[in-house]
Amino acid sequence: MTRVAVLGAKGRMGSTSAEAIEAADGLELVARIDVDDDLATIEEAGAEAALVFTTPDVAFDQARWCLERGIHVVIGTSGFGDDKVGQLREIVADHDGVGAIVVPNFSIGAVLMMRFAAVAAPFFESVEVIEMHHPDKVDAPSGTAVRTAEVIAEARREAGSPGLPDATTTDPDGARGAKVAGIPVHAVRARGFIASQEVLLGDPGEIFSIRHDSSSRESFMPGVVAALRWIPGHPGVTVGLDEVLGLD
Amino acid sequence: MTRVAVLGAKGRMGSTSAEAIEAADGLELVARIDVDDDLATIEEAGAEAALVFTTPDVAFDQARWCLERGIHVVIGTSGFGDDKVGQLREIVADHDGVGAIVVPNFSIGAVLMMRFAAVAAPFFESVEVIEMHHPDKVDAPSGTAVRTAEVIAEARREAGSPGLPDATTTDPDGARGAKVAGIPVHAVRARGFIASQEVLLGDPGEIFSIRHDSSSRESFMPGVVAALRWIPGHPGVTVGLDEVLGLD
Amino acid sequence: MTRVAVLGAKGRMGSTSAEAIEAADGLELVARIDVDDDLATIEEAGAEAALVFTTPDVAFDQARWCLERGIHVVIGTSGFGDDKVGQLREIVADHDGVGAIVVPNFSIGAVLMMRFAAVAAPFFESVEVIEMHHPDKVDAPSGTAVRTAEVIAEARREAGSPGLPDATTTDPDGARGAKVAGIPVHAVRARGFIASQEVLLGDPGEIFSIRHDSSSRESFMPGVVAALRWIPGHPGVTVGLDEVLGLD
Amino acid sequence: MTRVAVLGAKGRMGSTSAEAIEAADGLELVARIDVDDDLATIEEAGAEAALVFTTPDVAFDQARWCLERGIHVVIGTSGFGDDKVGQLREIVADHDGVGAIVVPNFSIGAVLMMRFAAVAAPFFESVEVIEMHHPDKVDAPSGTAVRTAEVIAEARREAGSPGLPDATTTDPDGARGAKVAGIPVHAVRARGFIASQEVLLGDPGEIFSIRHDSSSRESFMPGVVAALRWIPGHPGVTVGLDEVLGLD
Which part of the chain is the Dihydrodipicolinate reductase C-terminal domain (chains A, B, C, D) (predicted)? Predict the structure, then answer.
């Protein structure tokens, strides 16, 4: 049984996660920390792991505070780039046995989609990405679609795959979409979608597709729970769920 | 039994149609006319209807030749716009009982998709069109996608539907695709597709989609046969398969 | 502005509907009636229309009570078969100008899917229905799938369509699914679905599909609102949303 | 450059493969052997590898003949079960450096689908398989669907996954389909499909799907070519394309 503190427990991801932790075998919720709460509560509650969903301005310092006290951290706050990950590695190096994992995307479905897309991409002549989100989203394409296109492009480059065939010479209004790392990416914005994405791969006489439809925050909970169960046995700094899921 | 002549019988659509006519109940293939053949053969064979798949430069004159002799025509050659349709009306007006039908798209599936999209569009907040074709296609979006977007836009205008919701403010690479008559249209070009299209409609909590996948010229044959069976009883000039299919 | 009373206002459909009515142009919520409330409140509140989502044992008597007082009714309670519809007709015949509509399915998407499936079915050689619901559902196939198969079968019978091609001779475990009115129906039960259905139609070289994915009760609200706006101008008894949507 | 002989060169798979070999870099077609041809031609032509697509009654003896002469074999003939694979191992053990690969399915898309389904299955609560084929197919479900269900079941058993949730108590006509190794499998038979399959995986709030649509024999060619390129460097007996594709 791992004793868990949730930081940012009143936020949407934090509160949904708190419920999921309470329902999960092997995890025990011992502290809900919000913006005005004293971090000392975490230690007093005997937390072994902290789940960090606080805002980017405080998340790093809170993670450091935990790691320095031997408390493992699972970081869901966005914006932990190479820079901050490097700093986490320095902190962890000084505290034997403690682990930190930075998770840009807790959706196991999204992680599997990216992995499968990367494995499959070199075997097909064509590949394109279509992402579908609600129309209140302000940016296109989605971060997941960009990352998916990047891992596809990287896999094809490593395999020595040729460029994608495309005879288009007339496209006055931009129907062919965006090119991200050379991979066409299309963004649909329609009421009724929450977050969906499809990767289409094609060869003569066949289409292979991988699709993920997410309709609620609930879909992130298996990833949150898996990371919390995994972190106590894995010191050091890890990025992404791939290793947690045994995909490496 | 309707006696049919195929004009352009050595072309891809003409030759596939000739086979379909031979296999169809109620139709009898009596003449295969190609570029060097004398049109008189059509009359000598006793053809009651002519299927025109010749090139745009000769198709109109051939259709006129048939109509003036009381032979109904089904025109599959592309490029019969309002201008030529008007001329056909004048010819037909002088020849009692003869019928001409101009068919821009013989795919019953494509015709149904457009019709259903137009009927459904006013009932949903969002609508987008995704078309998928082989990567040797030079233009994007496809003519069918443009026509679909136009009929959707027209249906929404008539119903007084508001504009589509879209909060996108950041889309540096054009992932949101083309806007055709205000409707977002996305074009995928991937090996493995022949001609596919999906219309996505969305409301809070639901997605409605209409999709057509065509994988061979065979899929146009039911439309060709239906038009040939229908034309003898329908004098005057008709455009499109809608009336043939009983959709009007 | 139509003044509306909701009967069964504490139930799931009733309470969601009450919110939707409050948000809708042209409708005003004037009474929320629940199991212990006096129906007289409906009249006192000056309701012109009543939305009935109470249980089957009381819904009919409540509808009668409203109709006898000149209050139009929209009935969402299930179980209003030919028998009860006939009784409604008798009541309405005695009360000039009052209207009742019985709506087995408020999902506009589901209604459109059934209508489009019926229109398209005679044009294709093959047709099958796949419905997908959450795994807590106790019956298979769904009522909507059964109704869809029935309207497809009826449309094909009227059109004189032949039987569906199927060379299956070996299917020891029943993978070909159920036959409803001669139409194959498949039921998927998987976590993550709420209520989805796809109608697949096929001809040589093409597949045509119509799909509806519903992920929340919200998706029924446009149908509820449309029925309430429509009923005041349409005396008599109506069954289903088709006429409300202008599909007849 | 590997010199290749095709055995069964007049059959459908053999003749399509012969064309693909002629077009492929690194392979040279040196002999087309059919039922009445002398096997000695293979050796005379200097073939280094033989592609076997002959009928089950002669394929094994032909493979043995090749292996005994140091010619690698790629076997596409169906029906090479554990028994024959064992005999192949004995033959190969006596002939140093020669390799044989038995390939039940040359579709890279189908192989990837099975692999991905097995990897993903333990991460989701629900999983079902839907396969779609032309209506002239006599057996249901397809061999690929059965194999897919088996690898999914095996992956879940190894991971200790619980049984699939399913509250169905009423299913009079069998809409829930077949259970293969405990996994629901549905078979659609509709004109317009050649060979398609979708694996649906679900968790609360999300659906993950992997789909493969094959519309021609062409789609098997990349697998045929990959196996022929791979076999010269891989002595011993191999079953399936997984290792060829680097999936192991």
Answer: 109-245
In this structure, the answer to whether residues A19 and A39 fall within a common structural domain is: yes
Residues B28, B101, single domain; the answer is yes
Low-confidence ranges of chain D (pLDDT < 70): none
Question: Sign of the CA dihedral D158, D162, D165, D171?
Answer: positive
How far does A194 lie from chain B, in Å, by closest CA? 9
pLDDT in tens, B78-119: 889 899 999 999 999 999 999 999 999 999 999 999 999 999
What is the rounded CA–CA span in Å between residue D165 and residue B122? 38
- In this structure, the answer to whether residues C41 and C57 fall within a common structural domain is yes
Q: Is the same domain home to C167 and C113?
A: yes
Please indicate whether residue C186 is annotated as part of the active site: no
* Kind of pairing between the strands at A178-180 and A183-189: antiparallel
Show which residues of B are catalytic: 133, 137
Residue D51 near residue D34, CB atoms below 8 Å: no
User: Would you say A210 and A117 are in contact if contact means Cβ atoms under 8 Å apart?
Assistant: yes
Hey, which bits of chain D come out as E strands?
Answer: 2-7, 27-33, 49-52, 72-75, 99-102, 126-133, 178-180, 183-189, 195-203, 206-214, 236-239
Clarify whether residues B136 and B112 are in a common domain. Answer: yes
Region C27-52: mean pLDDT is 95
Contact map slice: B 192-231 vs A, CB within 8 A: 192-193, 200-207
Query: Was B106 annotated as part of a binding site?
Result: yes
Helix, strand, or coil (residue D97): coil
List the single residue in B with minimal CA-CA distance to A188: B176
Residue-wise pLDDT tens digits, B30-41:
999 998 899 999
Q: In the prediction, which pLDDT does C248 show?
A: 75
State residue D91's pLDDT score: 96
- Is A247 part of a structural domain of the chain? no
Tokens at D58, concatenated:
């002669």
Catalytic residue flag (residue A84): no
Could you report the per-residue pLDDT of B223-245, keeping only the tens digit for each?
999 999 999 999 999 999 999 99
Same domain, B230 and B186: no
Residue A246 lies in a domain: no
CB of D129 less than 8 A from some CB of C: no
Judge if C131 and C199 occupy the same domain: yes
ipTM of the complex, rounded to two decimals: 0.90
Domain with residue C17: its CATH number is 3.40.50.720
pLDDT tens sequence across C136-191: 999 999 999 999 999 999 999 999 999 999 999 999 999 999 999 999 999 999 99
Give the gap in angstroms from C-alpha A160 to the nearest C-alpha of chain D: 15
Measured between CB atoms, which of B136, B140, B202 is closest to A191? B202
> Left, alpha or beta for D192 (phi > 0: left; psi -120 to 50: alpha)?
left
Band of pLDDT at residue B53, cut at 50, 70 and 90 = very high
With CB atoms and an 8 Å threshold, state whether D210 touches A213: no
Q: Which domain holds residue B188?
A: 108-215
The per-residue pLDDT for range A152-167, each reduced to its tens digit, is: 999 999 999 999 999 9
CA atoms within 13 A on the CB side of C222: 19
More confident call, B248 vs D74: D74
Token representation of residue C203: 């001809």
Whole-angstrom CA distances from B215 to A214, C204, C207, D242 are: 30, 9, 9, 29
Q: Which among C84, C95, C137, C234 is annotated as catalytic?
A: C137
Chain D nearest CA to B192, separation (Å):
8
C139 within some domain: yes
Count of structural domains, chain B: 2
Chains that touch D (3 or more CB pairs under 8 A): A, B, C
| Closest in D204, D208, D213 to A206, CB measured | D213
Residue B205 to residue C217, Cβ atoms within 8 A:
yes
CATH number at residue D185: 3.30.360.10
B112 touches chain C (CB under 8 A): yes
Residue C246 belongs to some domain of the structure: no
Are B115 and B202 members of one domain?
Answer: yes
